[in-house]
TrEMBL record:
InterPro entries membership: EF-hand-dom_pair, EF_hand_dom, GRAM, PH-like_dom_sf, Rab-GAP-TBC_dom, Rab-GAP_TBC_sf, TCB1D9/TCB1D9B_PH-GRAM1, TCB1D9/TCB1D9B_PH-GRAM2
Protein name: TBC1 domain family member 9
The Rab-GAP TBC domain, residue ranges: 492-679
Keywords: GTPase activation, Repeat
Taxonomic placement: Eukaryota, Metazoa, Chordata, Craniata, Vertebrata
Domain EF-hand positions: 863-898
Cited Gene3D superfamilies: EF-hand, Pleckstrin-homology domain (PH domain)/Phosphotyrosine-binding domain (PTB), putative rabgap domain of human tbc1 domain family member 14 like domains, Ypt/Rab-GAP domain of gyp1p, domain 1, Ypt/Rab-GAP domain of gyp1p, domain 3
Amino acid sequence: MWVTPEDVLLAGALWITERANPYFILQKRKGHGDGGGGLAGLLVGTLDVVLDSSARMAPYRILYQTPDSLVYWIIAHGTSRKEITEHWEWLEHNLLQTLSIFENENDITTFVKGKVQGIIAEYNKNHDVKEDDDTDKFKEASAKFRKLFGMPEEEKLVNYYSCSYWKGKVPRQGWLYLSINHLCFYSYLLGKEVKMVVRWADITQLEKSATLLLPDVIKVSTRTNEHLFSVFLNINETFKLAEQLANIAMRQLLDNKGFEQDRSLPKLKKKSPKKVSALKRDLDARAKSERYRALFRLPKDEKLDGHTDCTLWTPFNKMHILGQMFVSTNYICFTSKEESLCSLIIPLREVTIVEKADSSSVLPSPLSISTKNRMTFLFANLKDRDFLVQRLSDFLQQTTSKTYLEKELTSSLNSSDDEVGSERKFNLNDSSVPTATQALMTMYRRNSPEEFNPKLAKEFLKEQAWKNHFTEYGQGVCMYRTEKTKELVLKGIPESMRGELWLLFSGAINEMTTHPGYYEDLVEKSMGKYNLATEEIERDLHRSLPEHPAFQNEMGIAALRRVLTAYAFRNPNIGYCQAMNIVTSVLLLYAKEEEAFWLLVALCERMLPDYYNTRVVGALVDQGVFEELAREYIPQLYDCMQDLGVISTISLSWFLTLFLSVMPFESAVVVVDCFFYDGIKVIFQLALSVLHANIHQLLGCKDDGEAMTVLGRYLDSVTNKDSTLPPIPHLHSLLTDNGEPHPEVDIFKLVRSSYEKFGSIRADVIEQMRFKQRLRVIQTIEDTTKRNVVRTIVTETDFSIDELEELYVLFKAEHLTSCYWGGSSNPTERHDPSLPYLEQYRIDVEQFKGLFNLLFPWANGAHSEPLAVRFFRLLDQNADALINFREFITGLGVLCHGDLTEKLKLLYKMHVLPGESGERSHSLSISAVKKLNTPDYRHYLKLWNQEMRPKRENTKDLPKLNQSQFIELCKTLYSMFSEDVAEQELYHATATVTSLLLEMGEVGKLFSSSFRKDHNQEGNSEPSVCMRDVLDPKGTQEVQELGDIFVPAGLENKPSPCEEGKGDEDSEQLPPMQDIKLEDSSPKDTGTSSAMLISDDETKDDTSMSSYSVLSAGSHEMDEKLQCEDIADDTVLVGLPHSTSIDKDWAITFEQFLASVLTEQALVRYFEKPVDVAARITNAKNAKKVGRPLLSTSDYEISLSG
């Protein structure tokens, strides 16, 4: 490739000049290519790997030099001789003549530089290369990475780092390449080459550790190996990036969310390091945005634009607080340097004025922001105030236009009809359905008024304290959040303010405000829809806080049904999970229906990520984090709890329901208050406090049942003395035994004690621990899936458990590879974690072709594809263009362990299936497979389906094979044997069998036609096609040109079953078809065109073959002319598009096919040949180990070998 000219000193060092002229020199790197260059070459190769030189990337280069100058300029480099030669020839043809005209050397240099830069600019313009894309150096590294590891263009390199890889006890210095889907290492030292490729999805542990010998090590563990890397220049950056990429891979395993590059990144700044790729910047920006969203509880699509140090004037204590301002598309946020001193969120939708105030020595570069609720925020000490104001004004313009657009959209949505065609407009106050227009608790309390008591007085004081706080610190989203806010939350939020403050602290208020009418629309769309989620919701509705009066009538139940169903409709990946009903019922008590919905969205999608999917992965991850925290904070109890296995038992219900299912209701809502304010750390702190408070009793427990009883009693005794609610019986306490009750524990004291003892747990530490646990949990789930699949199938097949596990790994790897590098179908269709184990991973026809070539004994290179397609269609029982692992193993099992009859039956059935023939099968796509889902196809599949069951199938039930299908079967047999050692012998055997079958078909046809003559005297006048027409000697010459035609000897003198011109009783008028117009044709036309059998007397004298000849010229004319279309249940059209009639008589049965094959020992040996399954699996694993093989190696030379 051409490169921007750079000057080079010592042009001869480490390079060999291969071509030269007065202005240009073509050089090759020492140690590259066949020569090797002896010891000097080995040393140069080693240096190239160890040092990050651009020469390491390109073994060829072209230098420019004027005759009288010692300075050289590199203008092009190449990874192969072919590439560099093209550039050299271009220079010789286009520049040499021109350069001789110039007199001044400086003019020549300027001209050459300008010309090369012009070529680069033209290339970038034609190939749509953006200016701020990767640097030349990084592009070279990417090219080297793809070449070394055989990766396709789709595999994007993110970054590469110099490090040492410990192979045994010896460190190998080299380069660690981190790409989107793989971690790769390459080293070349003194002729010894080391290559390693690990898929991120296979990593079970990734950790940074330190030992005495190795101060900084990154340990990468998979199920089978452990890899150690050390001596990094910046280990923290490398580890963070590796962690992020592994996280993306886990996310893909969990819910198919693959990596999509963000194209809307800001341009690269001049100060940025040269080596940083666009992908690396993208991932860095993502990581920052995730931290920003988590810190301020912002919607999940919010992207951080930038942040800057500044001060904020806080009017409540008359101080300038030092901190950081964060700006994103829709928000301005601030947090103080001193944690929890003050934080602030200003949505741009609330902003009215942004203005620069006058600078002074006391207040340099101030910026004033005013909001709709008449609050003004004063920021100062802003470094780049003008740029910041410009960004804010841009975002404000976008916000205003977005608001107008939303208004228009909601109005148009309200005016348009519903998807189903119903014109009923949804109304929350619809009199026909009792609906919750306000929090259920308010309605419930109004129905049962209480007398004044001290608790109500305390509640009133709490409300006053919050009102005073709002006066001083502001109310709504733009409120100053300080230590005082936290204090008030820990004392308990008043009943009347809970809904409002939960919305505020969780960030749900933002999503609700920016999506007006969204919930109503969802309810309307989801009402009346039935699926698995709605069934589960109906089942659990009456189990949700049944002890609370609000859910003992239809109003509460209906509100709960609507919220849960609307959420299941919004997020089908989660749908509905047990425990969501308990949490949602509590939300409905304190918030309006729409507010409860958005609180549920915040919980499921942001605050408790992955908690409520089908496998409760998030809760299992946090269970692992809790175990780690218990080991760190209460080590004396940890070992005992591990032995009893209590931690895993208790924590799941605590986390999933935020203690609502294990504590009395009025106490548990205080926990929910703190959770919405401080996040998941509250739940960890509280769980540790509960264990700590019962440490002595737990140490004395003998089994898990006793430990559970101790904890159950303790949690039942947690009370809220401030609660104004009438006492609600707690189900958990009703179910415990009648032992002595535990002394009462005050919830507020318990919460405060949890903050005092375990308040040091930080959110970022929890996230770090979550990553480690997520790897473990997801890989454990994947292993469980594999074991369950194997356990289900092992009784149905002759493969061993080990072989099935290896095959499952290959099957899953094929699925993952297509996710990485594109497949012809959607990955989400093929991988659905909510499905039963066997159905979770499925592959389409393109992926099956890859596995077919690697594993199936009948595959043989060029001819495999049509056979693979036929095989796939046979295995795809439900015709959804996807096959699962069981179907895959069924097919492979017959080929590897089946007897002769089973294999031949499979081969026969592949060709009886109606479908396409010849060349067209090569280009069978997913859509083509889906189109086969016709009544005819289903009819055949029902027949095969019975054979898949354990009961023995009667071979007589198999449909007959007609002419066209027979030809395809013979072509398949020929292609199967094309690379076999006994190829000639097999060809002869096939020829004999073919001859035999053709004669059987002819005889069968005679019987068939005479039978029909007896039963059907009334003939029709339509023209016919029959074997005699086909065998017309006049047409023989033309027919022979068709190729792939089978010629039985001696048939030309047999009596003709039909005569030309006679009405054909065996013909059938074709029904009209959608796109093909069929016309009548005379017998003489069809005699030459739809022929399959011709006479050939010469073959009688040929002793090397049997009594027939096979013309297999490789011509595809027959493929083009023969067509198979579905007509009726047992009819397949054979002939030209213009033929109107079908010869239904010629057919053979499976018994005839089987009997014929058994006559030839060569064929019997071939089909009974044992298959070495282990060797095939090993070969397939080796083929899969290093990416996809390069499509062509002719353009590349292996630069390093050892």
